[in-house]
Amino acid sequence: MSKPSIPQGTRDFSPEEVRKRQYILNTLKNIFELYGFQPLETPSMENLVTLTGKYGEEGDRLIFKILNNGLHEKKEEDKNKLNAEWNNVLSRPYSSPVVTERALRYDLTIPFARYVVMHQNELAFPFRRYQMQPVWRADRPQKGRYREFWQCDADVVGSTSLINEAELLSIYMEAFDKLKIPVKVKINSRKILSAIAEYCGAPDKLVDITVAIDKADKIGQVGVLNELYQKGLSDDQIAKVNYLTFFIRESILTQTPIITDIAENKSQNGLDILEQEFERNNIKIGLEGINEIRKTIDYFTVLAERKNFKSSIEIDMTLARGLSYYTGVIVEVVCAHPDVKMGSIGGGGRYDDLTGLFGLKGLSGVGVSFGIDRIYDVMDELKVFPEQLAVGAKAMLVNFGGDNETYALQVLQQIRVAGVAAEIYPDAAKFDKQMKYANKRGFAYVLLPGDEERQKGMVSVKNFTTGEQKMLTIADCIAAIKG
RNA sequence: GAGGUUGUAGCUCAGUUGGUUAGAGCAUCAGAUUGUGGUUCUGAGGGUCGAGGGUUCGAGCCCCUUUAGCCUCCCCA
Q1: Which domains does chain A have, with CATH numbers?
Q2: Chain B footprint bases within 7 A of protein beta carbons
Q3: Which nucleotide shows the minimum CA-to-C1' distance to residue A6?
Q4: pLDDT for A384-396, tens place per residue?
Q5: What is this model's ipTM?
Q6: CA dihedral A415, A417, A422, A424 (to 10 degrees)
Q7: For the whole model, what pTM was predicted?
């Protein structure tokens, strides 16, 4: 017999892990609902054509394709065609509807866009939804990267107001406060990045510049500049990128803060300098980006007035985000605790015209995503999960068999009716064995409904932490367990 | 797509320059203990050493092939 195993890049979640994950999901769900977002779920699989071409060339290769079941190949000629196409499919990345026409969900954004387009006549815009579901990628797994993982998104479509951006920032703040993770929310605008490309006379290199800057945290300033050099930017252009991003950021970080810290109400000097540069060179898009960030932060400041958020927001022009569909304000969340080395635990931004891919033009959206696997790891490291999550049922009834078993079942339902989670040991096994089981499961109380207890209509209650034991009436027993 | 590394009991791992019958801890089961758990103590079961081939008198160990996991880069969450 071969050893059982699970597919590469997938995980089992133990009862304890599921409880912790659900704690995160429930916390987020409550906040989304509080902010007026509606839940949405889409199928695990989509039609392959819905997904292909949406995530770039690399993305297409990472889509998990589902093999057709052969339901359609009734005729002999169809079967022959299938065999022929098979040979093509085996030479990736070719795919054919004859062999595969469905694929597993790759993210939540594209299915959301598809949903909005399909239901555009029923929906009341602006439509705000949240969605928490697993997605699948045929990636090579490594630490913190899986083939099946959960995404947790909140988006608004059909509104260009920057109030939406501010609300999503507020959701981030509220969520990470609730989860007790100190964070830094970084904010920037794609328009500023476009302006930087324009400023150094290489608007065609926008993507290269964006991708390079996005790596700033990982490979550092020198690394970014090197990559720009390799992408063919001139020394002069590189110097300009350097000036607008790192130099301003760095010099002002050490002297006057370019970083805007809402909580401490520091100045926005960095933006002012950028603004002057863009004005002098008449780069409109850059000025737009700066205005959007200012306005977003103005709105957010109002939202934050009564909330007393613990974390801060920083404007950071080295924030780029890899995804290509963002067009406006972009945000990213990193853990601010000095001991935690973890990449971003959340991110998002505005994307104009996402639904245009499916033929519905002119619908702007903005959304954020929570990386719940990483959030889980951070919370585990910081030990900020509530302790009572660990145990399920609070009490266990020992099974003494015979009449006592019947009596135990009666007691069991009485205390459950009172709202106390309890279970009975289902077999009249040796006392020792039952106690050991109770110990391992970590029940707070063990109830002993034996001969004497049954005759008196009572039950012995053993506090499993202190070892103390008393015979009580059922009502007193319930009261004791409820504390 | 490129590279590194590891597969030995249910789990975590030892195993010497190749040498008798492959070990430990944990877990499981049984007993000390038939209404009192955690700590002990005693005993038991459990292995095609990832798979296939080769070298050798002899392979867990050396060589070749293959497969699976983990990790790094690319990319991404």
Answers
A1: 16-41+107-382 (3.30.930.10), 391-482 (3.40.50.800)
A2: 1-2, 10-11, 28, 30, 33-38, 68-77
A3: B69
A4: 998 777 667 789 9
A5: 0.85
A6: 80
A7: 0.87
